[in-house]
Amino acid sequence: MSEYIFYPGCSMESSAKAYYHSVMSVCKALDVKLNEIDDWNCCGATEYLSLDRMPAYALIARNLALAEKHANGTNTVVAPCSACYLNLAKADHYMHEDKAFGKQINEALAAGGLHYDPGTLAVKHLLDVVLNDIGLDAVKSKVVKPLTGLRVAPYVGCMLPRPDYGNRYSDTEHPSELDDLLRALGAEVIDFPLKTACCGGHMTQIGPDTAFELIRRLISSADQYKADVMVALCPMCQMNLDAFQTQMNGYFKTDYRMPILFFTQLMGIAFGQKPEQLGFGSEFVSARQAMARIGIQTPEPVAAAAPAAKKPAGLPMPPPLKKGGDSTGSSEEA
Amino acid sequence: MSSTRSVNSPPTFLQEVKKRTPGESHVEMCIQCGTCGGSCPSGAAMQHTPRTIFAMMRAGMRDEVLSSNTPWMCVSCYYCTVRCPQEIHITDVMYTLKNMALESGKVQDTTASDFSKTFINYVENYGRSFEIGLAGIHNLTHVKLAARLPNMAPMALGMLTKKGMSPMPPKRIKGMNDLKKILKRAKELEAA
Fold first, then answer.
1. Domain segments of chain A: what residues?
2. Which one, A13, A91, A169, B36, has least CB within 10 Å?
């Protein structure tokens, strides 16, 4: 069994539960133990860095300090989210490279009784651990249901291969790691030219025109290559491409229906695990038809218009006002 | 040129940007090749391409740079950073420019900075981010009602039903008091 320090990140508890469940499921199968950092905090994504440098780095470094404190024999921190991974790696890198800066961050940490020695932890994304620590041979040995016949677009995104402070990936623009993993699972991997193009990041919120164009490029390219599904390894990428696909279609008057899955969901399927325990059915664009091609029955995603389990009145966002449509009556009854 | 200035002169704008960017950013090394702008996925939305911004920084056009929307349109994809033949940490420089723009009060369109502030407000109070609350507040304050309802309402419902997201704020971390002390000290250090 191999043990790692685990930094889940906020999305894993909210928008990316499918990722969380599938990560846990496949790590168990691979005999990987993930020890969650006690009382970790948000990494600040790209937002804190935009506002104020020193607290942004101190916020990230608190996680490194807590991880170092509870290292207990292992020195590798694993993050499944590309943005979290990059932030942790970035703080470690700059605290190490720029000693004066590192000293200042530690001065801030000291106000909370913490300290981090830069360079003592290795920060890795889960894909890196699967590929380089566990290895493809071990992965292949677990495959009982090869994904033969499933055409997959491997979407790596930006923050994993770039800027790549630790030189961990084969290329900053066309890395092959995700392709290799998916091939080991038996999938037919398309040579996806946009595999590290941007998903739009937070532009869905601040400049939707820009975000929709970036989402369109990715989806249409995968579609042109006749991919059945696209695979992501970051909650933000998955959310942008999946949840905003309908809006993007509306904006460009297109009708793409490209399911966006987490790589761990396909690993779980290949390992013979149940789709339900891997978070299938939580995607906006249903993966049901695509997975049926290889004989896997996945749950139908809950319809967006179906009555919400929680009362819409409790939402921080306005409920739909439009009357009519097939769901209005039932939601009023509920 | 910055190198010919006397050591006693006040720092140039370029030197200030360099000082406020961690590590060796090579910010003064730009050769104006334009690889950054040509690689930028959101360049079309920028008032000035990154190459232009670097020329403006060197020319000491502080106000023009700090009021440009360019850093705020940066999506942090790091294409420019890895492609720059001079190894300038362009994405990090964009973060520095955003920090300085906020301090100077010269930000023209605050949509992006308000989004960052709402995001961080949750983090500074709970230790965790809160996606639903963030999207909700941001859309209520920055998206016109006519666009909000048809687009955002189905999205919000989908987040709650399909993804099973909670509309409640996250649970506060145990070390919140210590985290507040850390952030307070860090802010003092940045301002010093």
1. 2-125, 144-292
2. A13
Q: Which CATH class is domain A2-125?
A: mainly alpha
Which of residues 53 through 82 in chain A touch B, CB cutoff 8 A? 53-55, 57-59, 62
Q: What residues of chain A lie within 8 A of the CB of B135, using their CB? A: 205, 317
List chain B residues with CB under 8 Å of A97: 22-24
Q: Which of A305, A309, A320 sits opposite B149 (nearest CB)?
A: A320
Q: Is the pLDDT score of A307 beyond 50?
A: no
The CA distance from A82 to A125, in Å, is 7
- What percent of chain A has a predicted confidence (pLDDT) above 90? 87
Q: Distance between CA A218 and CA A193 in Å, rounded?
A: 9
Distances, alpha carbon B75 to alpha carbons A18, A159, A197, A264, B24, in Å: 25, 11, 11, 26, 22
Give the chain A residue nearest B145 (alpha carbons): A318
Strand partners, A207: none
CA–CA distance, B26 with B89 (Å, rounded to integer): 7
Tokens for A125, please give them.
């994304």
Of A14, A46, A48, the CB nearest to B165: A14
Which structure tokens are listed for A96?
């190490």
The residues that bridge with A230 in the sheet, in sequence order, are: A153, A260
pLDDT tens for each residue of B112-148 = 999 999 999 999 999 999 888 888 888 888 877 666 6
Contact assignment for A44 to B165 by CB distance below 8 Å = no
Closest to A234 measured CA to CA, from A48, A64, A10:
A10
> What is the distance between the alpha carbons of residues B55 and B65, in angstroms, rounded to a whole number?
10
Report d(CA A258, CA A269) in Å as an integer: 18
What type of residue is A84?
Answer: C
A54: Cα within 13 Å, side-chain hemisphere: 24
DSSP B131-185: HHHHHHHHHHHHS-HHHHHHHHHHHHHHHHHTS---SSPPPPPTTHHHHHHHHHH
Report whether A192 contacts A150 (CB < 8 A). no
Give the fold, CATH level 3, of A144-292: Rossmann fold (3.40.50)
Specify whether the CB–CB gap between B96 and A101 falls below 8 A. no
Structure ipTM over 0.90, yes or no: yes
Q: Is the CB of A210 less than 8 angstroms away from the CB of B162?
A: no
A254-270: burial string, b at 16+ Cβ within 10 Å, e else? eebebbbbbbbbbbbbb
Closest partner CB to A284 (pick from B73, B82, B162): B162
Query: Of A207, A237, A243, A231, which is closest to residue B72 (Cα–Cα)?
Result: A207
**Domains of chain B, earliest start first:** 2-104 (1.10.1060.10), 111-174 (no CATH)
Closest CA in chain B for residue A61: B182
